[in-house]
Design brief:
Layout (H helix, E strand, L loop, with lengths): L3 E5 L7 H13 L3 E5 L13 E3 L3 E3 L1 H5 L8 H10 L2 E6 L1 E2 L2 E2 L1 H12 L15 E8 L2 H17 L3 E9 L37 H24 L9
Parallel strand pairs: 1-2, 1-5, 5-8, 8-9
Antiparallel strand pairs: 3-4, 6-7
Length: about 230
């Protein structure tokens, strides 16, 4: 059984987002699995509607918590229900969470949409939201959006990590066109035209390790007390 599921919405190979999600997973010392969304074929929510003889006009996922779209999300959804904790990472794109991550969040909501169940399926599971960004302001927006989904599904957010990277632009803050709000050249240890590595930041590493510790200690305490995530009241 996978105890912790890590999901990265970055399409970049071995990206900062990938590595930060994996750092949290590895630091827990628990059984985990990593999924890179760009390796999957996942459609956005189609806002399907059906006529049900008992409930009338409804979304089909309201009836049984099953999305009717047939793609790779069908392989991920059982793992979401199985895991005790989720670590999800994305990045800002035009001031909001990027498309791969947003599409995943849309479809994820379907497996716990309603189904007229007495208790939400994801209730009590632990969540860590991660955003790798150029500016802390945009990163916080993304991390907040991911955390908002945790709360919507009655999960327990245990950490929110915002790690600052930078655009691979040789002009940086001297750019006369976009005037990017970036970290100063003196604040990073890499030449112009390369991407800053947030995992060189000791504070980011510490935050990731603390997030892992919270997950591990909470799950260990629950097992000791015989508490399942589904019995947690939030």
């Amino acid at each position: 059984m996978v105890e912790i599921l890590g999901i990265s919405g970055s399409p970049v190979k071995n990206s900062n987002t990938d590595r930060l999600v994996k750092l949290v997973l590895d630091s827990t010392g628990l059984k985990s699995e990593f999924i890179k969304l760009s390796d999957c074929k996942i459609e956005p929510c189609h806002v399907c509607m059906v006529d049900d003889p008992k409930w009338g006009r409804v979304f089909p996922c309201q009836l049984d918590n099953q999305c009717i779209l047939q793609d790779d999300f069908q392989k991920i959804s059982p793992k979401l229900l199985e895991a005790d904790a989720l670590v999800i990472g994305g990045y800002p794109s035009f001031g909001s969470v990027n498309a791969w991550t947003k599409t995943f969040l849309e479809r994820w909501f379907a497996i716990d949409h309603c189904a007229f169940q007495e208790k939400p399926l994801m209730i009590g599971k632990l969540g860590v939201s991660i955003a790798v960004c150029n500016t802390p302001e945009d990163g916080k927006t993304v991390a907040d959006q991911i955390e908002s989904m945790f709360r919507e599904l009655h999960m327990l957010p245990v950490a929110k990590i915002v790690a600052q990277g930078s655009f691979p632009c040789r002009f940086r803050s001297k750019c006369s066109v976009r005037r990017l709000r970036v970290v100063s050249l003196e604040a990073i240890e890499c030449p112009e035209g390369t991407i800053r590595d947030p995992l060189n930041d000791k504070e980011v590493i510490k935050e990731a390790q603390n997030a892992a510790r919270r997950i591990r200690e909470t799950l260990e305490w629950r097992r000791k007390e015989g508490i399942k995530h589904s019995s947690v009241t939030v």
